[in-house]
């Protein structure tokens, strides 16, 4: 079987487990990660700064066989993210809407001390990363925590950033916490053509970056504005306002429509904003309007 650049890593490894050794030789050490293996060979090459044609040639030159014990030992432990030293790993437990309890904080602290983590890092995605873990300790850390991994990598919806909204913040104009948790439960980890970031803000200050993520909500005195197509990275893009003053009960059906349209029309690895630049926003707008309850018959 000849592999192609648009094939997922997990499918290549399933067809020929011995290809893991070839990929590791070129610097792909994330092959035990449930998130990374859903990326294509082309995306993996891009992320690791490898010539995609060289990587493709390498995996196609490997004879059929099983993964060696040495290669299996080097594979990234599930739920771990390889660090700069190429020896230790970090993990990012999922914290819906960034809301924690004292019990969760104590558990994270106790487990981090038990396994001699190098640091705890509050991330921009409202998670608490446990940094500098030995690979053999990563499964034990997850077992002791009893928490789900946050989707920090891969072609999927990442943890949703949520501000305090009118529950706590004096500037909040709309509720955000229960809405953000509902959205996180519904969309977090959803597989999409590319990575997908979301934010929910309760006022125009947009403390959760609503206008610079793939899909964001911003509270106003009359409802929520829906932004689409924002992203950071090498080519930053400001999000477009798709709909204004949505009511809370309208949001899920409209967001469902945006996700469905994106999944159907985006190219592999294409962020929502780049799809909008390529296709225009009119089709997405019409599709989203049809999903608003007020527009249904």
UniProtKB/TrEMBL annotation:
Taxonomic source organism: Desulfosporosinus orientis (strain ATCC 19365 / DSM 765 / NCIMB 8382 / VKM B-1628 / Singapore I)
Signal sequence, start to end: none
* Protein name per Swiss-Prot or TrEMBL: Hydrid cluster protein-associated redox disulfide domain protein
- Has UniProt tagged this entry with the keyword Heme? yes
Give all residue intervals belonging to the Nitrite/sulphite reductase 4Fe-4S domain.
156-289
Domain DUF1858 residue range list: 4-55
Please give the PANTHER family that the UniProt record associates with this protein.
Answer: NITRITE REDUCTASE (NADH) LARGE SUBUNIT (PTHR43809)
Does this entry carry the keyword Metal-binding? yes
Keywords assigned by UniProt, alphabetized: 4Fe-4S, Heme, Iron, Iron-sulfur, Metal-binding, Oxidoreductase
Ranges of residues in domain Nitrite/Sulfite reductase ferredoxin-like? 83-145
- Its Gene Ontology molecular function terms? 4 iron, 4 sulfur cluster binding; heme binding; metal ion binding; oxidoreductase activity
What SUPFAM superfamilies would the database entry show?
Nitrite and sulphite reductase 4Fe-4S domain-like (SSF56014), Nitrite/Sulfite reductase N-terminal domain-like (SSF55124), SP0561-like (SSF140683)
């Amino acid at each position: 079987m000849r592999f192609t650049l648009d094939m997922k890593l997990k499918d290549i490894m399933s067809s020929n487990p011995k290809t893991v050794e070839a990929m590791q030789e070129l610097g792909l050490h994330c092959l035990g990660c449930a998130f990374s293996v859903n990326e294509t060979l082309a995306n993996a090459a891009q992320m690791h700064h490898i010539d995609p044609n060289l990587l493709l040639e390498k995996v196609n030159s490997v004879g059929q066989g099983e993964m060696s014990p040495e290669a299996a030992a080097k594979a990234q432990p599930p739920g771990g993210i390889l660090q700069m030293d190429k020896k230790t790993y970090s993990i990012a437990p999922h914290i819906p809407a960034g809301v924690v309890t004292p019990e969760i904080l104590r558990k994270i602290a106790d487990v981090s001390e038990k396994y001699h983590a190098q640091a705890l890092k509050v991330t921009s995605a409202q998670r608490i990363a446990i940094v500098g873990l030995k690979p053999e300790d990563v499964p034990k850390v997850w077992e002791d925590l009893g928490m789900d991994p946050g989707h920090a990598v891969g072609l999927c919806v990442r943890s949703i950033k949520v501000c305090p909204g009118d529950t706590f913040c004096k500037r909040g104009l709309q509720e955000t916490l229960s809405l953000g948790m509902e959205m996180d439960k519904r969309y977090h980890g959803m597989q999409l053509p590319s990575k997908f970031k979301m934010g929910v803000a309760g006022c125009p200050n947009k403390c959760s970056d609503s206008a610079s993520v793939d899909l964001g909500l911003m509270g106003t005195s009359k409802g929520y504005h829906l932004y689409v197509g924002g992203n950071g990275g090498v080519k930053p893009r400001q999000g477009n306002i798709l709909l204004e003053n949505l009511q809370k009960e309208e949001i899920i059906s409209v967001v469902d429509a945006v996700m469905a349209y994106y999944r159907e029309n985006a190219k592999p690895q294409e962020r929502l904003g780049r799809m909008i630049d390529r296709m225009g926003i009119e089709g997405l707008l019409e599709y989203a309007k049809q999903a608003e309850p007020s527009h249904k018959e």
